[in-house]
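Moderator note: this is an archived Q&A kept for reference. The question asked for a predicted structure of one protein chain; the sequence and the answer are reproduced below.
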Amino acid sequence: MTHQTMALNALFPAATESIEVRLAAGTADIRAAQRVRYRVFYEEMGAQPTPEMHAFELDFDDYDEVCDHLLVLVEGEVVGTYRLIRRHAADAVGCFYSAGEFDISPILAMPGEILELGRSCVDARWRHRGTLQMLWQGLAAYMVENDIRLLFGCGSLPGTRPEILAPQLAYLRDNHLAPPELRGSALGGPNRVDFEAITAPWEARRVLASLPPLLKGYLRLGGMVGDGAVIDHPFNTTDVLVVVNAADIAGRYVKRFSA
């Protein structure tokens, strides 16, 4: 078990005897997280695995060996995970994951520690408020331990047809656009969706009811989006760049860890 894992466990002990949240402590933990990701993203949500992923029934890439993996376990079984990429892990691969879809130079220019969030998922059997809260509480502990100042990552809307998602995208543009100093932008190319070109009307209550729970949760914590969206065909999603001030998340939970 690494020092980082022990620190997180000390900050956030298990809520019950059967449920715990901690960082992955070795290869077996990482593989368990990758199996959960495969079930959720590929078997449930229809993402397109590579032949190697399909053969092993694992979701994996180069970031998995250098990042931290936050886990929720029920009676020893990994049922939820969050992938946490800090600057040093991104440097080991060459860039942050979201840089493949967005120009994130304004975020990279921010001083202090920044954290890219990704691959958040919970097994369908345990997809309820309690498990999700465990992930968020574990994330808050990690942020406190590592003095994280800013969170960001790709927020996904289901589907790859922007004409259908136009009300959601217009709502995000009109209500949650990040200020210029934090406003990454979708890279050019055939998969870019220009916010300026969206003219669809939106109704707030209807849009909010249709947003994925994770994206809606970020918005409730003051989350903002960058300029434009990107169609991710392999994952069957349309992505926006989400930015959240770490204080907006940690403030809700920090008293647990700093008392």
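Archived answer notes: The longest helix spans residues 27-44.
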